[in-house]
Amino acid sequence: MHRFVFLLLFSLLCGAQIQLDHEVVTVEIADTPAARARGLMGRGSLAEGHGMLFIYSKPEKLSFWMKNTLIPLSIAFFDAEKTLIHLLDMDPCEKNWPIYQSCSEALYALEVPQGWFAKQGIEAGAKFSFLDPENGVR
After folding, report:
1. Phi/psi at 8 (nearest 5 deg)?
2. Which of 16, 89, 107, 112 could bond to 51 as cystine, CB 3.0-4.6 Å?
């Protein structure tokens, strides 16, 4: 119960919400080099409907790996117009980490529990928007 309350409070205080297609996702924002490098490393779980949104300063081919990441994830890459351009599933492993790369230049990447996009029927072409445009996140 305490963990649920902590996660709820953390999401409300430190997170943002995005609308992706017909779903609302509560996201932690990783918009600095340090936050992007840390990502979801060391986490034992990630609740459904929650994720981490990586924001970059300019569109580029993005690369991710699962070093020290304990939970299976799905990642979606979005272009500058916030349109989903590529989806991948990523599995934890102990060494020889594969590189997961966007198929073209992206400005955003969203990590969620593995299979979440498929369960929600979200595919390439879906768009996201911030529910609170005043939150200071572009």
Report:
1. -65, -50
2. 112
Contacts of 89-93 with C-beta under 8 Å, sequence gap 24+, read 89/114, 89/115, 90/64, 90/66, 90/114, 91/66, 92/66, 93/66
Domain residue limits, the chain: 10-133
Terminal CA-to-CA distance of the chain, rounded, Å?
A: 34
Tell me the CATH architecture of domain 10-133. Answer: Sandwich (2.60)
Kindly provide the b/e burial profile for residues 30-67, where b requires at least 16 CB atoms within 10 angstroms of the residue's own CB. Answer: beeeeebeebbeeeeebeebbbbbbbbeeeeebebebe
Tokens (6 digits) for 123:
């595919």
pLDDT digits (tens, 9 = 90+) for 1-53: 444 334 444 444 457 999 999 999 999 999 999 999 999 999 999 999 999 99
Structure tokens belonging to residue 51: 């994720």
Query: What is the pairing mode between strands 23-30 and 50-60?
Result: parallel
Query: What global pTM score does this model have?
Result: 0.87
